[in-house]
Design brief:
The protein is an alpha/beta fold. 39% of the residues lie in helices and 19% in strands. The protein contains 14 helices and 15 strands. A six-stranded mixed β-sheet has the order 1-2-4-3-5-6, with helices on both faces. A six-stranded mixed β-sheet has the order 8-9-7-10-11-12, sandwiched between helices. The protein has a three-stranded antiparallel β-sheet with strand order 13-15-14. α3 (118-128) links the parallel β5 and β6. α4 runs antiparallel to α5 (150-165) and α5 packs antiparallel against α6. The protein is elongated, with a radius of gyration of 27 Å.
Length: 463
């Protein structure tokens, strides 16, 4: 969509031409990205200023979010807001301007990529004569479409009800229709708008009980995994950083991986055997995003417990994105909310994905800057081409099982059942078959594999 900038800083998208609009097609929508001139408040415990994104990046992300639920965008605009209005956020002139665009383009939904109070949302709906979704509402709508498991659906519905609880205004008609827990845009609904907050609260309590049952089941599964015990490695990152693509590359799984925000929502776990035989459980999690609603994080805490309980966390960054530093800060802030210190090199590995999209000059400069010795350097990979994947596997295995060690063992004839295990769990360098029927095997093995080998040999000798 072509854009042009007004004197006041507004970046305006030109309405697209849509032939044959008489037929019912995708929901027509307008996207507004308010940019407040005041510096965002730093709301964490650090003294560092919070990184801000460019207006262009915020616009592109808002458009990506809207397109993730197949909205037909007839107009998009970035609007500079010097003095936020309590009643409408935007100034009266801009409200009138967008009301005209909505009417002329027959838009049914207006996306405002900023938190709106219930009063602001209601007033804008009256002015635009269309449904209005703020950033939180839009993310909830996307999550409602993406949830596939029972747990995911319950979590989305709980987050939606908590969001809706403060917005029960009888004049709003769009809340009469619900779909899949999110329910802002979808088909005929289950009931009329909730008659009062008591009924809404009862539904919230019921959902929390159901989620608690799901959480207990997940705890049982986690307890069984700990008995094995396989270390858990969780992949986290900003949405669309390539987590599912990396997950598929490491596991050979067929998890949905698309160039789309929040392409996957429900967590996926797979068992992986690393090059020197170390088994791990790899977990793919929901993508993070800036200004993720607090109650949404709370609703998905059961899912995100996979991150909290993980032995190792891979923080995946899209290093080709101009806003990669701001995205990393958002991810680190959410990890901190979950009790995970992203600066702990023993627990968190930083991985730079999409390195293949950088030209050689930028690639070398970034890698040189990262190797300053002040912290563990990140691992550069391309989840699409496979570049750097072997190095990443080696680092994961070293963290989980220790450094490779040289080991020489003699296997007696009665112990030959261990030979196959040695080949599967170590890197055999040489083998000599001796005259007495034994075999001397030299190999490289991780520290944990060496301990297991020695333990198995002792058990065989004692039996």
């Amino acid at each position: 969509m072509a854009r042009e900038k007004d004197a006041d800083g507004t970046v305006r998208g030109k309405p697209a031409h849509h032939p044959g609009t008489e037929a019912k097609g995708p929901t027509r929508a307008v996207v507004i990205v308010p940019v407040l001139t005041r510096q965002p408040r730093n709301d964490d415990d650090t003294n560092r200023p919070r990184l801000t994104r460019s207006a262009e990046a915020r616009h592109d992300e808002a458009v990506g979010l809207a397109r993730a639920i197949d909205l037909d965008l007839i107009h998009t605009a970035v609007v500079t807001v010097n003095d936020p209005r309590p009643a409408t956020l935007l100034g009266s002139g801009k409200v009138e301007e967008f009301a005209g665009i909505v009417k002329e383009g027959h838009a049914e939904v207006v996306i405002v990529d900023h938190p709106l109070t219930p009063v602001q949302q209601r007033n804008l709906e009256k002015q635009f004569n269309a449904k209005v979704l703020d950033r939180t509402g839009l993310i909830l709508e996307i999550f409602g479409e993406r949830a596939r498991t029972k747990e995911g659906t319950l979590q989305v519905e709980l987050a939606h009800l908590n969001y809706q609880k403060g917005r029960l205004v009888r004049s709003w008609t769009h809340l009469e229709r619900q779909r899949g827990g999110a329910g802002f845009l979808g088909g005929p609904g289950e009931t009329q708008i909730e008659s009062d907050r008591r009924q809404l609260q009862e539904k919230i309590i019921k959902l929390k009980h159901e989620l608690e049952t799901v959480r207990r089941t997940r705890d049982l599964h986690r307890a069984k995994r700990k008995k094995v015990p396989f270390p858990v490695v969780a992949i986290v990152g900003y949405t669309n950083a390539g987590k599912s693509t990396l997950f598929n590359k490491l596991t050979g799984a067929g998890v949905l991986a698309q160039d789309m925000l929040f392409a996957t929502l429900d967590p996926t776990l797979r068992r992986v055997r690393l090059p020197h035989g170390t088994p791990i459980i790899l977990s793919d999690t929901v993508g993070f995003i800036s200004d993720l609603p607090t109650h949404l994080i709370a609703a998905f805490r059961a899912t995100l417990e996979e991150v909290v309980e993980a032995d190792l966390v891979i923080h995946l960054r899209d290093i080709s994105d101009p806003d990669t530093a701001a995205q990393a800060e958002d991810v680190e802030r959410i990890l901190a909310d979950l009790g995970v210190d992203a600066s702990d090199a023993r627990r968190v590995i930083e991985v730079w994905n999409k390195i293949d999209l950088l030209d050689e000059g930028n690639r070398q400069r970034l890698l040189a800057d990262s190797a300053d010795g002040s912290k563990e350097p990140p691992i550069a990979v391309s989840a699409v081409s496979g570049e750097g994947i072997d190095a990443l596997k080696a680092v994961i295995e070293t963290r989980m099982a220790g450094e490779l060690q040289d080991l020489t063992v003699t296997i007696e004839p009665a112990q030959f059942g261990l030979v196959d295990w040695l080949y599967r769990n170590g890197d055999v360098v040489s083998r000599t078959d001796n005259d007495d029927g034994s075999a001397t095997i030299s190999l490289k093995a991780t520290q944990s594999a060496r301990e297991e080998i020695e333990s198995r040999l002792r058990r065989k000798n004692n039996s």
